[in-house]
Design the sequence.
């Protein structure tokens, strides 16, 4: 019976770990998509010395709970 419990515990741990990893990957991809959308607004002109269009850049806001900076979704 103890080997069966160990196998069940390992299976449950593997399943929970894979769910956590999948959810984390989804969150990272969502953050990447938001960053890419924001980066499209932050383009320089075709010339190397062209001005930066700062009026089109989304601002980052710090999440007070996690301390992570994210794109402001106003």
Sequence:
């Amino acid at each position: 019976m103890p080997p069966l419990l160990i196998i069940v515990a390992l299976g449950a741990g593997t399943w929970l770990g894979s769910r956590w990893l999948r959810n984390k990957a989804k969150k990272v991809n969502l953050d990447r998509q938001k960053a890419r959308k924001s980066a499209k607004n932050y383009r320089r002109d075709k010339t190397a010395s062209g001005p930066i269009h700062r009026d089109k850049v989304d601002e980052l806001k710090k999440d007070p709970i996690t301390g992570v900076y994210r794109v402001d979704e106003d």
